[in-house]
């Protein structure tokens, strides 16, 4: 016979609000999602922002797939004691993770490798914005920065 699920207090669950130690409350159940932080498609920040509260609405608003819901079973660690959940929540922002320059460079590389991306895109967008702000409105004008004409839609 299976044992009764562990009953967690809201205060206890709220203490688990870091990347390596992250617990969430969803539909009265408590999940330790720490092992999933790096794999979450929305990033670890999304999960961290859901700590210290009942994250049921956040979870439902995203519209998770059936497979995502099934995956939650392996992170289940018990139930929340409903009498300990505050009626009015005091927001305590999650502790931000340290800046990781390795992740930043990975992001830049991904952007540069994005299919169809070229360095000209950034320059042309910059020139178009410059023309919209400084050049008298006209259908097109010549840009001395990019040595080309800029057309407005």
From TrEMBL:
It is found in: Membrane. InterPro entries: Cyt_B5-like_heme/steroid-bd (IPR001199), Cyt_B5-like_heme/steroid_sf (IPR036400), Cyt_B5_heme-BS (IPR018506), Cytochrome_b5 (IPR050668). Keywords: Heme, Iron, Membrane, Metal-binding, Transmembrane. It holds the Pfam family Cyt-b5. Gene3D superfamilies: Cytochrome b5-like heme/steroid binding domain (3.10.120.10). SUPFAM superfamilies: Cytochrome b5-like heme/steroid binding domain. Residues 5-81 form the Cytochrome b5 heme-binding domain. Its main location: membrane. GO terms for cellular component: membrane. The keyword Amino-acid biosynthesis does not apply. SMART domains: Cyt-b5. PROSITE patterns: CYTOCHROME_B5_1 (PS00191), CYTOCHROME_B5_2 (PS50255). One of its GO terms (molecular function) is heme binding. Coiled coil: none annotated. Belongs to the cytochrome b5 family. This is Cytochrome b5 heme-binding domain-containing protein. It comes from Medicago truncatula (Barrel medic).
């Amino acid at each position: 016979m299976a044992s009764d699920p562990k009953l967690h207090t809201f205060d206890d669950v709220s203490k688990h609000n870091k990347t390596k130690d992250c617990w969430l409350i969803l539909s009265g159940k408590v999940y330790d999602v720490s092992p999933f932080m790096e794999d979450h498609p929305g990033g670890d920040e999304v999960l961290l922002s859901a700590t210290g509260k009942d994250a049921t609405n956040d979870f439902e608003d995203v519209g998770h797939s059936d497979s995502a819901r099934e995956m939650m079973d392996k992170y289940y660690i018990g139930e929340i004691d409903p009498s300990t959940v505050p009626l009015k929540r005091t927001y305590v922002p999650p502790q931000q993770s340290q800046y990781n320059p390795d992740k930043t460079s990975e992001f830049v590389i991904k952007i540069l490798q994005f299919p169809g991306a070229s360095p000209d895109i950034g320059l042309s967008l910059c020139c178009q914005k410059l023309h919209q702000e400084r050049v008298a409105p006209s259908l097109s004008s010549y840009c001395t920065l990019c040595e080309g004409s800029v057309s407005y839609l």
